[in-house]
Amino acid sequence: MIEICVYGADIICPSCVGAPSSKDTYEWLQAAISRKYPDDSFQFVYVDIFSPPEDKEKRQFAQKVIDEDLFYPVVVINGEIVDEGNPRLKNIYEAIEKRAK
C-alpha cells in the first residue's frame, strides 16, 4: 500500500496566492490518483500542520513544514517529499510509479 499524505492548512500559503487550498488540493489528488490507478491500493491522509494528529511522525513532519517554511500543501509519498506548493500530477505519478515497481 502506498501512503499519500498531504500536509497543509486552512489558510492558503502566502507564497501560493491564487492556488487552490490545501484541502482542495488533497481532494483533487485523491480523485485524480484513484482514476489513474483504479486497481492500486492507496491510503490518503490529510494533515493540518497547525493541528496535527497524535501520530509522532506526522506531528514532527508538520512542525518541519512550519519550521522550514515549506510551501504547502506538501505532498509526501511513503515518507518522502514529492512536491510542494501547487503540486503537479506529473511529479506525483512519477513518484507512484517508482514505488509500484
UniProtKB/TrEMBL annotation:
Gene3D superfamilies: Hypothetical protein sa0798
Domain of life (superkingdom): Bacteria
Name the UniProt record assigns to this protein: Disulfide oxidoreductase YuzD
Organism: Anoxybacillus tengchongensis
Upper taxonomic lineage: Bacteria, Bacillati, Bacillota, Bacilli, Bacillales
